[in-house]
Amino acid sequence: MNTNQQGVILATTPNCCPAGTRKGWQSVAAGVIAGCVTRTTTSPLDVLKILFQVKSQGATTLQSTCRTLLQTRGVTGFWKGNLAGCCRLGPYAGVKFCLFDQLQTLAHRDNDTPTNVGRATCGAIAGMAATFFVYPMELLRTRLIVSPMPLTIRYEARRIVQADGVRGFYRGCTSGLVGAIPFEGIQFACYEYGKSYAMTHRWPPCRWPQNKTQLQTVDHLALGSIAGAVAQVVAYPLDTIKKRLQLQGSGANARYDGMVDCLAKVVREEGATALYRGTVPNMVRLVPYAAVMFASYEAAKDFLKAL
């Protein structure tokens, strides 16, 4: 075989790692990194939020909850369930960001301008798929945080299987899937719109010196925090319902008969404000959570592209 023939064969041989596949794996890897970083940095506030949500009566103050947590579990109590949380949020973010990017690419193959409805739809679908994929770890994480006794992931998983079988890992999943629609849909729509607006209008002016051509980490932090705050106001009641369903007993010990029954009983017995119990620590948690998530994802993706 002569040199010219070898050149033709090499030129026509398919790339073992097509651009689309490479971009997809970059999104997955960047999402996993962002999820683990975000979960670890915001774990204390996430623990406080869950403890507030599952109190059925007489919620205490944030200060007294912190004091009780320190007295009973020490400083490490604020990171209780963090391993399960990383095992959940890492894959969750990886699936979510990868699927969102792929859906955006498919939806705008003709290079048409993305709409807010389109962004929200892609975000909602990506959020639902990611929620279903990692829901068992979400359930385990919640139980590890709330349990007064130190438990392992293996022990709690075995107990769930013995009590309810494999389907026990998806208790409360319906409310989680429903909650992912407004939360991820609104969050992605707000974030992507904010990026587009900031780039197009070079806004705010104080963040755009003459030589600046692209968004920086501070910009991603600000846009992510705004998007997360808006989304949580809409979706928080569904997250509360999900946590209640995750922690109830099974069979005859079950207090709620599904999402609608749980919603009705909480409102009737505790008032509508109970659906927003823990929203203050959650807002304090979610603003940095969303900021770190989007900023670390953008940074990780840029780093992986440069490799």
Short description:
The chain is mainly alpha-helical. Helix content is 74%, strand content 0%.
Structure, described:
The protein is mainly alpha-helical and 307 residues long. It folds into two domains: 18-164 and 278-306, Mitochondrial carrier fold (Alpha/alpha barrel), CATH 1.50.40; 169-276, Mitochondrial carrier domain (Mitochondrial carrier fold). It is 74% helix and 0% strand. The protein is built from ten helices and no strands. Helix 7 runs antiparallel to helix 8 (217-247). The longest helix has 35 residues, at 19-53. The protein starts with a helix and ends with a helix. Residues 6-16 have low confidence and may be disordered. Keywords: Membrane, Repeat, Transmembrane, Transport. InterPro entries: MCP (IPR002067), MCP_dom_sf (IPR023395), MCP_transmembrane (IPR018108). It is a multi-pass membrane protein.
Oligomeric status: single chain
Distance between the termini: 35 Å
The largest sheet, given as strand count, sense and whether it forms a barrel, is:
none
Cα gyration radius (Å): 22 Å
CATH topology name of the largest domain, in short, is Mitochondrial carrier fold
Helix content: over 70%
List the helices and strands and how they pair.
Layout: H1 3-12, H2 19-53, H3 62-73, H4 82-107, H5 116-146, H6 153-164, H7 173-201, H8 217-247, H9 259-270, H10 279-306
Helix pairs in contact: 2-4, 2-10, 4-5, 5-7, 7-8, 8-10
Please name the defining characteristics of this protein:
10 helices; Mitochondrial carrier fold; MCP_dom_sf; membrane; mainly alpha; 2 domains; 307 residues; Mitochondrial thiamine pyrophosphate carrier 1
